[in-house]
UniProtKB/TrEMBL annotation:
It is an enzyme of class 2 (transferase). ATP binds at G75, D76, R105, S172. Substrate binds at H9, D222, Y278. This is Thiamine-monophosphate kinase.
Length: 282
């Protein structure tokens, strides 16, 4: 189950249909990281005072459920007290497609490579644009805002690669903090090459591609990409699945005996930033 809260996961001015899309997508992203096919979802929905907002939300919910092939099975509604921050919860149910063990965070091994899907930092740059903290040309701006408001996790890719990986999770709170969690759960050390973190052309237009930009991308969160560890021998098969499902995979680091997270840039060690990403509890 994932919950999205106004002011935390979405902005008060975000369109209602995109809030619904993001709610579904964040839950589907968890299924993708488990190699599970969506089977249905349950929604907890506080009815807004604004009926037009309710209608737009439900339209977005329908669109997202159709896109991710996850039917709405039921749920609960309550009357939203006014004024209050909007909050929505959804439970997504899925079924593994493989007889192989369901991937967890704790199976990674020393010697594995660390991979991510897609690009990193787009949603963070989109949020920065919406908050007036960054800007870009109109096409880049549209792409980055869409990455923030309407993420598109790849269930098909997650299902395809699940039998090949040692450990897998999604990138929701930031690449660095989620990689650190994977390292901790698997009791290994992870080194990430910031040069290898995949940045989209739109992100480069908005934020650049220097060390500061790469640290921003790696800590921003809301990417909803796959983060996984896999033996080097699986690389050809992984890349074949990436091509088949039109979602690139990028090797961004390596695992070794030890503990903790280390960063490198241009072949040199880089200190960890003060914040690795979003912390649910400070």
């Amino acid at each position: 189950m994932d919950t999205v809260v106004e002011g935390v996961h979405f902005l008060a001015e975000d369109p209602a249909d995109t809030v619904a899309w993001k709610l579904v997508a964040t839950n589907v992203s968890d299924l993708a990281a488990k190699g599970a096919v969506p089977r249905g979802c349950l929604l907890s929905y506080p009815l807004a005072q604004d009926s037009s907002w309710n209608c737009a939300f439900l339209a977005g919910l329908r669109s997202a459920c159709e896109h991710f092939a996850i039917p709405l099975l039921g749920g609960d509604t309550v009357r939203e007290p006014a004024p209050s921050a909007r909050s929505f919860a959804l439970v997504a149910l899925g079924e593994p497609r493989s007889e192989a063990p369901v991937p967890s965070r704790s199976g990674a091994r020393a010697g594995d490579d660390l991979w991510v899907s897609g690009s990193i930092g787009d949603a963070g740059a989109g949020l920065a644009i919406l908050c007036g903290q960054a800007d870009a040309d109109p096409p880049s701006r549209a792409a980055l805002v869409a990455a923030y408001r309407t993420p598109r996790p790849s269930v098909a890719l997650g299902v395809a690669i699940a039998p090949l990986v040692s450990a897998m999770m999604d990138v929701s709170d930031g690449l660095l903090i989620d990689a650190a969690r994977l390292a901790r759960a698997s009791r290994v050390a992870i080194e990430i090459d910031l040069d290898a973190v995949p940045l989209s052309p739109a992100f480069r237009h908005a934020k650049g591609e220097d060390l500061a930009a790469r640290l921003f991308a790696a800590t921003a969160g809301d990417d909803y990409q796959l983060l996984f560890a896999a033996p080097r021998a699986q690389e050809p098969t992984l890349l074949a699945h990436a091509t088949e499902h039109d979602r690139p995979l990028h090797r961004v680091g390596r695992l070794s005996a030890g503990e903790g997270l280390q960063l490198a840039y241009n072949g040199q060690r880089v200190p960890l930033p003060a914040s690795l990403g979003y912390e649910h509890q400070s």
